[in-house]
Design brief:
The structure holds 2 protein chains of 2 kinds.
Chain A: E1 11-14, H1 20-33, E2 37-40, H2 46-55, H3 62-75, E3 81-83, E4 86-89, H4 98-101, H5 103-110, E5 116-118, E6 121-123, H6 129-139, H7 144-166, H8 171-177, H9 182-185, E7 195-201, H10 203-206, H11 215-221, E8 224-228, E9 242-244, E10 247-248, H12 252-266, E11 272-278, H13 282-298, E12 302-307, H14 313-339
Helix pairs in contact in A: 1-7, 2-3, 6-7, 7-8, 12-13
Chain B: E1 7-9, H1 17-27, E2 30-32, H2 39-48, H3 55-69, E3 74-79, H4 86-99, E4 105-110, H5 118-125, H6 135-162, H7 171-185, H8 189-205, E5 216-222, H9 224-228, H10 236-242, E6 245-249, H11 253-260, H12 265-276, H13 291-302, E7 308-314, H14 318-332, E8 340-345, H15 351-374
Parallel strand pairs in B: 1-2, 1-3, 3-4, 5-6, 5-7, 7-8
Classes of the chains: A alpha/beta, B alpha/beta.
The complex binds iron/sulfur cluster (2 copies).
């Protein structure tokens, strides 16, 4: 009945880039519970990058250019608000990459004709997440109780999402199955391929098939099992990683990569590790160095695939193929040794 | 080297070595000052650095290798707790150097907040003897350090002001070098206090031409290492001076240390400027590097008094690129009308290309200024 459908308060556009690939289920539930319609921009395609590059300066990393592209895409749609979060710190004592810290400013400072921006400042060093969401909810005319229940609901959704991903699904699969009946979902994907490789990196590189040039799919075609960080048990990410005696890691995103890789290495869970990074990415340039050294001492195959606008699909795939071949050869020669 | 003193090295950043040298020497160690940064050193640094790390990493690791080859075992490197790459420098550099087989200990000078007095522990630990530094002595050391930095700042300021007028090329640079030597040699408060006057005199002695040509006033600012180190920025300050620009330094180590000790009110003002321009993209918080204050400076200077704004940064520097994006847009949209020039530096940047860009830029500024003077 028409009367029972409450009128939505407006539409919030969420760019499909950067932290979208981590928190979208959470954001979506939160805003929907506050009675807003949520639209995401279209999936990344060549046009996204092209549009984005028109606004971004040359030297900026691709994920940001892609993000610009998604923002531009949303401006063309009918939205009332644009959601650009400011993630400063997601666990105690860490920071995000400088570009996340200044993201709303960067968007405001470089793109004209923006709709109203909804910022959400997440800074766990200073305030609990609920406060941040309360602030945001208030701006969207939510009442306290409404915001509280929206918050609880969204956290629940997010946790469920993580559990599904932990069971071995990809981002998109997990997201799609959120709508399904829980009983149907929790079945692990059948595996049984001879080679298992971890693909690590920032969510926006690993889960965006356009950006990584369909790497995950390609690996499947090569009969290689791909594990992503979210497939690993959640509790391993709780411990702080140490870089050296004097330094604890302080980058939120990198924290996951480092502890994930550490876990994989220590437990010998995979035959090799592929690190996807973007050209010009600040944190990755150092993290790569640290993992390379670690992999060398532990004698585990590792490559770092750097993606920029001009790196053709062919180049990347050739490198990955050679990498997989190398793993196969290693396995075979080890097998012979063990047998003999 | 006298018995029992520990030899300590530190990165060479611009003209600030006399201050660091006195800091460590007063604490009771022997200071090793790496030679001026140069192309050969950088080449060596490149070999051992991650491929696309920012330039300061590559230059500082070259300093360390030079020092280690001379028998130094202790290195002091500043560190921060995020959000930028800088905080990782010392840890990764230590790993690299150890893997190369050097017996090295990198001590980090945590600069996140100087009022936590962690630097006092550091000074104690490089002392070589167990005898504790008294509180009085610590403050004395810190005061000398501050005074030296302040004098260096003064010398750099005067250098920028004097160069466009010099009659014989290179005299200003020589005057600067004499000043640094004086600052290095002075050891007590009295001597340092007297130096202020002498430094001014040094630059006054440089023979100056009349003001017949149009002198431009340009701000040089950006990421601290590249802005202050004349090898890293390919002598951009000198080049600008010789092209007829008074160069006003938007940054100095003194300024930075003051900020970290919470007594820099000018920076607070710049923060306010950036924050209050929220609607057009002024940054709301420190995102690392100098971005926050660079935006503030740009707004501040756009209100008058300068002709150009030169922003230097290491290629791929995250915070400065953010600032660059925003300033570029502001200028293109006509919100502010001081033309900015952005110069990103890495090991590939060619000298000739830089010169052409600087010439074009100063020509542009000059045409603009002429129009202004002639009133149309
Ligand atoms: S972490 Fe790297 S890729 Fe991501 S925004 Fe920062 S610089 Fe860009
Ligand atoms: S401010 Fe720039 S140069 Fe300094 S560590 Fe950060 S990215 Fe590198």
């Amino acid at each position: 009945m028409h009367t029972s459908i409450k009128k939505k308060q407006g539409t919030i556009g969420i760019p499909r880039g950067l932290l979208y690939y981590k928190y979208f289920p959470l954001w979506k539930t939160f805003f929907e519970k506050l009675d807003y319609r949520v639209v995401a921009s279209e999936k990344t395609n060549a046009g996204t990058l092209k549009e984005g590059s028109r606004y971004a300066i040359d030297e900026i990393c691709i994920p940001l250019k892609v993000y610009y592209g998604h923002v531009v895409n949303l401006i063309g749609k009918e939205i009332d608000y644009l959601f650009v979060p400011r993630y400063i710190s997601t666990t105690f004592g860490t920071y995000m990459c400088p570009k996340f810290l200044g993201l709303p400013d960067l968007i405001r400072g470089t793109i004209n004709n923006l709709p109203r921006i909804i910022e959400m400042e997440i800074d766990l060093r200073k305030k609990p997440i609920f406060y941040s969401m309360l602030e945001t909810g208030r701006k969207l005319n939510g009442s306290f109780s409404q915001i509280k229940s929206a918050f609880e609901e969204s956290v629940k959704t997010y946790q469920r999402f993580r559990i599904i991903m932990e069971a071995g699904f990809t981002f998109q699969e997990a997201f799609d199955s959120l709508a399904k009946n829980p009983a149907e979902v929790l079945e692990r994907r059948p595996t049984g391929n001879p080679v298992k490789v971890a693909v690590v990196g920032h969510g926006y590189n690993v889960h965006d098939p356009f950006v990584n040039m369909g790497l995950i799919k390609k690996l499947e075609d090569m009969k290689v099992d791909a594990v992503v960080l979210e497939n690993l048990p959640v509790q391993i990410f709780r411990q702080k990683t140490k870089i050296s005696e004097t330094l604890k890691n302080y980058w939120g995103n990198e924290e996951e990569i480092l502890s994930g890789v550490d876990y994989l290495f220590k437990n010998n869970l995979v035959d090799g590790v592929i690190f996807l990074c973007s050209f010009c990415c600040g944190p990755d340039s150092l993290i790569d160095e640290i993992i390379t050294r670690d992999a060398k001492t532990r004698d585990i195959p590792y490559i770092c695939v750097v993606m920029d606008e001009h790196s053709g699909q062919v180049g990347v795939i050739t490198r990955v193929e050679a990498f997989v071949d190398m793993i196969l050869r290693r396995k075979r020669s080890r097998g012979i040794k063990e047998a003999g | 080297m006298s018995e029992g003193k520990r030899l300590v090295a530190f990165p060479h950043m611009g003209n600030n070595w006399p201050a660091f040298k006195s800091l460590f020497e007063n604490a009771g160690a022997e200071a090793y000052v790496p030679g001026k940064n140069n192309a050969r050193g950088l080449e060596c640094g490149l070999k051992f650095s991650p491929e696309w790390i920012c330039l300061p990493f590559k230059i500082t690791i070259a300093n360390f290798i030079e020092a280690l080859d001379k028998g130094v075992k202790t290195i002091v490197m500043a560190s921060d707790c995020g959000p930028c790459r800088f905080g990782f420098y010392h840890a990764v550099q230590e790993k690299i150097l150890k893997d190369l087989g050097y017996d090295v200990e990198i001590k980090c000078l945590l600069q996140a907040d100087l009022l936590t007095f962690e630097w006092a522990d550091l000074l104690q630990s490089i002392r070589g003897t167990r005898l504790p530094l008294s509180r009085f002595k610590l403050l004395w050391i810190a005061r000398i350090f501050f005074m030296k930095l302040q004098l260096i700042q003064l010398a750099e300021k005067l250098e920028g002001k004097t160069r466009p007028y010099e009659v014989r090329r290179g005299e200003t640079t020589k005057a600067l070098e004499r000043c640094l030597k004086m600052i290095d040699e002075a050891g007590t408060h009295q001597q340092l206090r007297g130096l202020k006057h002498l430094i001014k005199e040094e630059f006054a002695k440089v023979e100056k031409a009349g003001r017949e040509k149009i002198i431009l006033k340009v701000v040089l600012t950006g990421e601290i290492f590249v802005a202050l180190d004349c090898f890293a920025n390919q002598d951009v300050k000198k080049k600008l001076g010789e092209l007829g620009c008074e160069v006003c330094m938007g940054i100095s180590l003194y300024d930075w240390v003051k900020h970290k000790a919470h007594v820099n009110f000018h920076r607070k003002y710049l923060e306010y400027l950036s924050k209050s321009h929220r609607d057009i993209g002024g940054l709301q918080l420190d995102i690392g590097g100098e971005a926050f204050w660079v935006l503030g400076q740009y707004i501040d200077f756009s209100r008058g008094g300068i002709d150009g704004f030169v922003h230097v940064y290491p290629f791929t520097c995250m915070p400065e690129i953010t600032a660059k994006s925003i300033i570029t847009k502001w200028y293109n949209d006509g919100i502010f009308d001081v033309p900015p020039l952005f110069l990103g530096f890495d090991e590939h940047a060619g000298e000739a290309g830089l010169m052409t860009r600087l010439e074009a830029y100063t020509d542009l500024l000059r045409t603009k200024k002429k129009k202004l003077i002639n009133g149309n």
